From TrEMBL, chain A:
Its main location: membrane. It is an enzyme of class 7 (translocase). Part of a membrane-bound complex that couples electron transfer with translocation of ions across the membrane. Its cofactor is FMN. Belongs to the NqrB/RnfD family. The modification FMN phosphoryl threonine is found at T181. Its EC number is 7.-.-.-. NCBIfam families: rnfD. The keyword Ion transport does not apply. The gene is rnfD. The complex is composed of six subunits: RnfA, RnfB, RnfC, RnfD, RnfE and RnfG. The chain crosses the membrane at residues 27-47, 53-72, 102-120, 132-151, 241-259, 271-288. This is Ion-translocating oxidoreductase complex subunit D. Keywords: Cell inner membrane, Cell membrane, Electron transport, Flavoprotein, FMN, Membrane, Phosphoprotein, Translocase, Transmembrane, Transmembrane helix, Transport.
From TrEMBL, chain B:
Its main location: membrane. HAMAP family: RsxC_RnfC. This is Ion-translocating oxidoreductase complex subunit C. Part of a membrane-bound complex that couples electron transfer with translocation of ions across the membrane. The complex is composed of six subunits: RnfA, RnfB, RnfC, RnfD, RnfE and RnfG. It comes from the Bacteria. The keyword Electron transport applies. Residues 477-506 are annotated as: Disordered. The keyword Transmembrane does not apply. It comes from Uliginosibacterium aquaticum.
């Protein structure tokens, strides 16, 4: 016997006596890793203003979380280290116009964690996706700033560091830089009575490299999709929500475009623009605010996709992912209730299954 | 013997379960060794589901190996035999494998080292015994489910008679991590297991044996296939490795695609499930007349110096087994009787091996992976893992809010407490603890309710009785009063008549 067996054994604990390695922070870390390539690509496209806005948004989200925890006399360190607040700020930053002024990031970041998350009781208790709550709050409060898009540096000369700081902190984007997103252009022109066929006579400005105006979560489409597939491969998310959401956008878009190409964008344009891919892989899949059963996730994803298409096609705003996700978030508890898995040995109503041979 | 293969579609559609690190080696790669005799054996009277056995020996008595020392305590119960020759030194409280570290009455036997058997009645061709005889001998041998459930095997056999069982399922899945006692037994004693299964088949009147073995045990599958070759009714089926594949209903569904109803038994769908260890014990009992006095136990875990499978006499303390395996390298973070997923955490190394003990584990801190629980992030891992199709996170939330009734409504009763959810949870929420607590609380509430109902019934009966008695009393009183009045009236009338008579006379 190598060592004496201590008589004082640890107190009895319930089974199981072995646990999976993963923890909340490893889950969050993997999501951040998947998000990193697209983010770096966005930094490269949009330069210093985007980097400073990202930093401000993330820092504000963390500050908001920490302040609430202090006020509620809870432990700050473990909650900050779980990475959820950082990820919330990060996802919000991905959805903002990259050259937005500093206060957009600060207000948004604080709003996301304070109102969107901690007001509901913190991690796991929020009904709505905090990043999308903040984005929608900013969009309805500051519609002009929130729709001032710029093209990536590939199209116009990138601003230097000094000019960048004046963009972020001075509060104005030089007119030379501003341009519209595809969805924005389509909506504006349609509202002026110009058909899509005329607007995009030279072909749709969509490309897989994402070299076009939009948020950081809109431009690096290929890298975002790759990050999403990586999440699937790591089994952080399942395929149900992303696939259902993308199909929920694509199928009505296909039908609409086939019926009236002058009025409805095609499925490719829908999938490659706006936050469709970011939403499908990173936002709608948020654990806390989506259903937990597989069947429920299919319904939820399809709903997010369909509502996105409806808002984009008929709503007042050019982009609809954030609204769609929030609307479906509100339905998630109901979906969870209606889409419970069938219990072994019972029918869908919960009654014990009957055997063929009656006794 | 036609090969039965699980249809890929069935595998695909049944996506429950978790894949813990198996930790089967090095123990799974080493022969089963005899553990030898410790200084003292402690034999709890309740080593099975049902009524405890009744002691029939006295303190100071010398007993032989295989001698009956406690007889069957009821309809669902099992007898107990001396695991070796020696002296009964006490019949007293002792620690037993129990989740709340309770003690229970046990027979304390000091081995004399001679290991002398009682005369055994061997049977060269036990398959020629009648159904009744097989069942009786299994009962007399004290055999219980060796997979851990410890249900008296003979009771299960007679169950087969009543419910028209067609299939005997041999459970060789051994889905718990670390454990390899069934794996080794199948590799080393496949013939005995197959013979035992054929005996059970005969006793139950079933027509085929389906032995399910997880695909992480290729040597065991091969050995069992070879042993089953002469018997067309015995099929060895490779099943996917995942936890909890060895839960009987899950095994039935994987092997046959049939689901047993939630309110019924496996026998209702014509299936009887027995562990391979049970089949082995049945063979030993019928062929050699040996009652159950020992079993194979996996001694493993990161804190154990030389993990191994040992043939262990019932009643052997855990400390002796750890010493037999080179002692403990590091102080264990947790000591477990059984497997890590459903086993019982023990506090005292005197805890004995009982009939259902498949493993004795000393786990190091890194293996246990214990950490402070954090908030549920609703990731749904537990929903995906649940073999029954429950929503563990929702049940836990309701139990946390003390809404036990609601937890019951969404399926708490169907929970196996297999621990797949607690294993996979990234927030380390002690889900199983919630469910066990709620089940216990609901059970005690329903007992309390029954007690209250009985009291209410009795009180009502008493009130009714008092009322009835009062009514009867009043009736009697009234009757007597009426009689009295009638008598008085009659007397008065008579008096009046007499007076009138007198008057007329006068």
């Amino acid at each position: 016997m190598n060592s004496p067996i201590s008589t004082a054994l640890p107190s009895v604990a319930a089974s199981p006596h072995a646990k999976e390695f993963s923890s909340v922070s490893t889950v969050m870390l993997k999501v951040m890793l998947a998000l990193a390539p697209a983010t770096l690509c966005g930094f490269w496209y949009f330069g210093w203003p985007a980097i400073s806005l990202w930093l401000l948004t993330v820092a504000s989200a963390l500050a908001g979380e920490a302040a609430c925890l202090v006020l509620m006399k809870k432990l700050v360190r473990p909650a900050l280290l779980d990475g959820s607040a950082l990820l919330t700020g990060w996802l919000l930053a991905m959805s903002l116009p990259p050259w937005a002024p500093w206060w957009i990031g600060v207000v948004g970041g604080l709003f996301a964690t304070v109102v969107g998350k901690q007001a509901f009781g913190g991690l796991g208790c929020n009904l709505f996706n905090p990043a999308m709550v903040a984005r929608v709050a900013l969009l309805v409060s500051f519609p002009v700033v929130m729709t001032a898009w710029v093209g990536p540096s590939g199209q116009s000369a990138s601003p230097g560091l000094v000019e960048s700081l004046s963009i972020t902190f001075g509060g104005s984007i030089p007119d030379a830089y501003t341009s519209a997103t595809l969805l924005g252009q389509a909506k504006t022109e349609l509202s002026r009575g110009v058909t899509l066929l005329q607007t995009f006579a030279q072909g749709l400005p969509v490309s897989f490299s994402g070299q076009r105006p939009g948020s950081m979560g809109e431009t690096g489409i290929v890298l975002l999709a790759a990050g999403g597939l990586a999440l699937l491969a790591m089994r952080i998310i399942s395929w149900h929500i992303p696939l259902a959401m993308l199909l929920g956008i694509a199928i009505p878009a296909l039908i609409g475009h086939a019926v009236n190409p002058a009025r409805y964008l095609d499925a490719g344009a829908h999938l490659l623009s706006g936050a469709a891919v970011l939403g499908a892989f990173f936002i709608a899949t948020d654990y806390v605010t989506s259903p937990s059963s597989r069947a429920g996730q299919l319904v939820f994803g399809a709903g997010c996709g369909f509502l996105t298409w409806v808002i984009r096609s008929y709503g007042g705003y050019p982009e609809g992912v954030a609204f769609a996700v929030l609307l479906m978030n509100a339905l998630a508890p109901a979906i969870d209730r209606l889409c419970q898995p069938r219990i072994y040995g019972r029918d869908w109503r919960g009654n014990p299954i009957k055997l063929n041979k009656e006794k | 013997m036609p090969t039965i293969v699980i249809p890929p579609l069935r595998r695909l559609l049944q996506r429950w379960g978790v894949h813990p690190d198996s930790h089967k080696y090095p123990a799974a790669g080493l022969d089963i060794e005899d553990a030898g005799l410790p200084d003292m054996l402690r034999l709890p009277l309740s080593q099975h589901v049902g009524a405890p056995a009744k002691v029939i020996v006295e303190v100071g008595e010398r007993v032989l190996r295989g001698q009956l020392i406690a007889s069957t305590g009821g309809k669902i119960s099992a007898p107990l035999h001396a695991p070796t020759s020696g002296t009964i030194v006490a019949i007293d409280e002792a620690v037993v494998p129990h989740p709340a570290a309770l003690t229970d009455v046990a027979i304390h036997l000091r081995p004399d080292g001679l290991d002398e058997w009682i005369p055994l009645k061997s049977e060269l061709y036990p398959i020629n015994l009648s159904e009744r005889e097989i069942s009786d001998r299994v009962e007399d041998a004290g055999i219980v489910g060796m997979g851990g459930a410890s249900f008296p095997s003979a009771v299960k056999l007679s169950l087969g008679h009543r419910s028209k069982v067609t299939t005997l399922m041999l459970n060789g899945s051994e889905c718990e991590p670390y454990l390899s006692c069934d794996d080794r037994l199948m590799q080393e004693n496949a013939h005995a297991i197959i013979e035992g299964a054929r005996l059970i088949l005969k006793a139950t009147g079933a027509t085929r044996v389906l032995a399910g073995i997880e695909d992480n045990k290729p040597e065991a599958i091969l050995a069992m296939k070879l042993a089953a070759k002469p018997f067309p009714e015995v099929h060895i089926v490779k099943i996917p490795s995942r936890y909890p594949m060895g839960a009987d209903r899950q095994l039935i569904k994987m092997l046959t695609g049939i689901e047993a109803p939630a309110d019924g038994r496996a026998a209702d769908v014509g299936v009887l499930v027995h562990n391979v260890g049970t089949a082995y014990a049945v063979y030993r009992a019928l062929r050699y007349g040996e009652p159950l006095t020992e079993r194979v136990v996996t001694v493993a875990g990161g804190a154990v110096s030389a993990p191994r499978n040992l043939r262990v006499r019932l009643g052997t303390p855990m400390a002796y087994l750890f010493e037999r395996c080179g002692g403990l390298r590091v102080p264990p973070a947790r000591v477990v009787s059984g497997g890590p997923m459903m086993g019982i955490g023990v506090q005292n190394l005197d805890t004995p091996v009982v009939k259902g003990t498949s493993g004795v584990l000393a786990l190091a801190a890194a293996e246990v992976g214990e950490r402070e629980a954090s908030a549920c992030i609703r990731c749904g891992s537990c929903v995906e893992a649940c073999p029954v199709g429950l929503l563990p996170l929702e049940m836990a939330a309701r139990i946390h809010a003390n809404a036990l009734g609601e937890a019951e409504e969404i399926g708490l009763d169907d929970c196996l407490t297999c621990g797949a959810c607690g294993f996979i949870c990234p927030s380390r929420i002690p889900l199983v603890q919630y469910f066990q607590h709620a089940k216990g609380e609901l059970a005690s509430r329903s007992r309390e309710q029954k007690r209250l109902d009985t009291i209410k019934e009795l009180t009502e009966a008493k009130a009714a009785r008092i009322e009835r008695e009062a009514r009867e009393k009043a009736e009697i009183h009234a009757r007597r009063k009426a009689e009295r009045e009638r008598a008085q009236a009659a007397e008065a009338a008579a008096k009046a008549a007499r007076a009138a008579e007198k008057e007329t006379e006068a």
